[in-house]
Sequence to fold (265 residues):
Amino acid sequence: MRSAITSEYRKFFTTRTWGVLVAVMAAGFFVGTFLISWLFAGQTSGSGPGGVDTARPYLFGIGASMGYIFPVIVGALAVTAEYRYSTIVPTFLGEPRRWVAMVAKVVAAVPMGFLIGVVGTVACIAGTGLGFIVGGGAAGIFTLDTLTLAGLSVLTHTVWALVGVGLGMLVTSQVGVIIAVLAFTQLVEPVLRVGMSVFSATQGIPKFLPGAAADALAGGHSVYAALSTGVTDQLTIWQGGLVLAAYGVAFGVLGYFLRIRRNVA
Fold:
């Protein structure tokens, strides 16, 4: 197991894909949150509805609520890249126990999700704080609430990396998994969450979707959750974490039995 895990870490750090993704993510979060908070601070202030104090946690949490695609893709690429470039064959020859090889990918990808979470969260908090300062407001960074939110955001990214590995095992096509992740996270789920919240019969369903569970784990400060005005109940932090992790485990188990155990062409 140790040699398999070491091999997976080498695969991460001998390629530049994850580094480029993290750099793009950090730059986008910093610039985006800076501009939004700067413009917002110049138009309103205070702690009332629509005030700076109300908006600040949502801007701090943009990484967890909108940037989870990055740890998902990095986790998925840990599996799909091997199938695309046919390196999965020597991987299975080196470790014939395929479940061990997949567990090693999980063990390697989860810390990468943690690292991505740290970088993304710091970028969001720094951009937001600087934007509020430039706009004439208070940064509000060094508070217990901000530190708690930051910790939950990093944890959310970490669990998303687990989900990504599971998806990669289920959809071994690199192009296919990227398209599926982009389509579901950026279009399908947001529409479902807002649409289902309108009807009383379906209001209890959206909170169990992956993004909604992640929002709960991250503390509930999500743009999508704010738009879903019809939803009156949300999962708790620990419930959100369990539901999100369950998605990753379910994807991985299904992928192992349906895809990973098959003969590699």
